[in-house]
Amino acid sequence: MDAFETYQTPLSSRYASKEMAYLFSPAQRFETWRKLWLNLAIAEKQLGLPITDEAIEQMKANLKLTAEQFEIAAKEEKKRRHDVMAHVHTFGTVAPAAAGIIHLGATSCYVTDNADLIFLREGLGYLIRGLAVLITRLSSFAAEYRALPTLGFTHFQPAQLTTVGKRATLWIQELLWDLRNLKRARDDIGFRGVKGTTGTQASFLTLFDGDHDKVVELDKLVTELSGFEYAYPVTSQTYSRKVDIDILAPLASLGATAHKIATDLRLLANLKEVEEPFESTQIGSSAMAYKRNPMRSERVCSLARHLMVIQQNALMTSSVQWFERTLDDSANRRISLPEAFLTADIVISTLTNVSEGLVVYPKVIARRIAQELPFMATENIIMAIVKKGGDRQEAHEKIRVLSHEAGYQVKQLGLENDLIDRVRKDAYFDPIKDELDTLLDPASFIGRAPEQVDAFLKDWVQPAVASEELQQAIQKSVKVDLNV
């Protein structure tokens, strides 16, 4: 393997989107370093340092690295044992007029930390847009099945009815919170700026002969040239690693949401009520040919668990940064930060894939309702008898006895729930027998679930994804789906 190949996207990002994989690739990292060196030179020249137009133009013309430059950088790093200085030298080989002023006054963290902040902000943007697509897909699913009754579960035991669409809104609501949290994190990211070796800007004060105003203006100019609205007012050699905690926290929370959604889908697959997409040639088991394993949802759960714990690295790293800095953060962050974003990207894209092909089996759902609804309808039956002039206590006792008889059929004999047949055969219930079908209509047990779905999608989902950024992402995803 040559040096250029060693700098390519790591294997761990193979299943992430191309955009996210490239964002954390060495090629993007070193190009960003060159842009930061260019921005620093432009600002320093504007404030009076002797930097030529030729130097600036050569830097602008060579922001992307070639395979040959990767080779040079690899050799230099092996010799110097310092990645930043290796790339300062490499940049100077293609921008010789700038070789003497590249990195002027800066410390390594000028490029490494500022580049990381750029990547984290861009990465959050990718996740935000992907999340909007996922929310839109699940919202379409919720709207389609807004009124389809299904058995609710509490403690994974049969409970009152809900609807398939209403259950989906519970997933979407948590995703909306994740969307909000990711936006907050992105909007809060600042720039490290131009702060020097221990954050005092001493080297830049020397460059500008003690002119404090020019040093302040330099920090402001480079921040603006790099696309940030503000720089952190004080830093050490690095930006505070507490920033990483604030960024990884919403990613970990997204992991919890994804795990809950995927777990629900795995349970529904076992019930045979709702299944994730299953290809016609897909094999569920090497031994059991009939199996249709929810492998995508299982993959989401697996990755989500990893995503939820990555934040622990940021917490521990932040807590042990001695004084102005220590280097035991570097190797950890080079793994944990890209992994968190790549993992979150895969989790979102996999859930989106699942949501686009969910298969609902209404007859299976109806059969399960029929098995449980008679017991749930007993109160309605009692109330109907009372309205016809019957005695509540007597009606209650009649239903209690019949319910136990039906329960025996189900639990002891493994037969179907025949409670309603028993009610129909008992002369005591003659006054309401023509009402039983109405009393047992599943639609009468779902409350306001359909209306809740409608209101939720209109009042909460639509405003959350209404921005131009998110609408463009949604429209782009539709074009990709349609291959147009």
How is the topology of this model organized?
Layout: H1 3-6, H2 18-23, H3 26-46, H4 53-61, H5 67-80, H6 83-94, H7 108-144, E1 149-154, E2 157-163, H8 164-188, H9 202-207, H10 212-225, H11 242-271, E3 274-275, H12 295-319, H13 330-355, E4 359-360, H14 362-376, H15 378-387, H16 392-411, H17 419-425, H18 436-439, H19 449-464, H20 468-482
Antiparallel strand pairs: 1-2, 3-4
Helix pairs in contact: 3-7, 3-10, 5-6, 7-8, 7-13, 7-19, 7-20, 8-11, 8-19, 11-12, 11-13, 12-13, 15-16
Walk me through this protein's architecture.
- Keywords: Lyase, Purine biosynthesis.
- GO terms for molecular function: (S)-2-(5-amino-1-(5-phospho-D-ribosyl)imidazole-4-carboxamido) succinate lyase (fumarate-forming) activity; N6-(1,2-dicarboxyethyl)AMP AMP-lyase (fumarate-forming) activity.
- Its EC number is 4.3.2.2.
- This is Adenylosuccinate lyase.
- This protein has 20 helices and 4 strands.
- By secondary structure, it is mostly helical.
- The protein folds into 3 domains: 102 residues, Orthogonal Bundle (Fumarase C, Chain B, domain 1), CATH 1.10.275; 231 residues, Fumarase C, Chain A, domain 2 (Up-down Bundle); 65 residues, Ribonucleotide Reductase Protein R1, domain 1 (Orthogonal Bundle), CATH 1.10.40.
- The chain has a two-stranded antiparallel ribbon.
- Strand 1 and strand 2 form a beta hairpin.
- The N terminus is likely disordered.
